[in-house]
């Protein structure tokens, strides 16, 4: 039997390829709002970031999501993203 292909995606901050399950998707929805997409299935334009919380700070400084998603993003979104990535990384380290 053939081994299953693992879908790879590129983190827009670090520019490294990771398996899709090791990334978090940020999506610009049809109405122009930006949201964290934990399921990876929301409709809209998406960009991926690694589970490293420091990358959220780097993304805030470089405004990489604003360029990728072509929409202005408030600073509060980056704070929410940082907290989400910290929580997600802690869960992955515990094996949950």
pLDDT < 50 runs, ≥5 residues: none
What is the first-to-last residue Cα distance?
29 Å
Classify the secondary structure makeup into a structural class.
alpha+beta
Order of helices and strands: EEEEEHHH
Number of strands: 5
Gyration radius over CA: 14 Å
Q: Please work out how many helical segments DSSP would assign.
A: 3
Mean pLDDT: 94
Taken from the alpha-carbon principal axes, the silhouette is globular
How many strands, what sense, and barrel or not for the largest sheet?
3 strands, antiparallel
Instruction: Give helix % range.
Output: 25-40%
Question: Can you put this structure into words, describing what you see?
Answer:
The protein has helices at residues 53-62, 64-69, 75-94; strands at 8-10, 17-19, 23-28, 34-37, 45-50. With 96 residues, the protein is an alpha+beta fold. The protein has a three-stranded antiparallel sheet with strand order 4-3-5. Strand 1 (8-10) and strand 2 (17-19) form a beta hairpin. The chain is globular. The termini are far apart. The model has no long low-confidence stretch (mean pLDDT 94).
């Amino acid at each position: 039997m053939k081994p299953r292909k693992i879908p790879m995606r590129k983190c827009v901050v670090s520019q490294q390829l990771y398996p899709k399950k090791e990334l978090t998707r940020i999506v610009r929805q049809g109405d122009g709002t930006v949201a964290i997409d934990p399921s990876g299935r929301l409709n809209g334009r998406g960009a991926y970031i690694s589970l490293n919380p420091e990358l959220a700070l780097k993304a805030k400084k470089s405004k990489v999501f604003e360029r990728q998603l072509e929409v202005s993003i408030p600073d509060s979104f980056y704070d929410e993203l940082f907290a989400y990535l910290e929580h997600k990384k802690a869960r992955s380290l515990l094996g949950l």
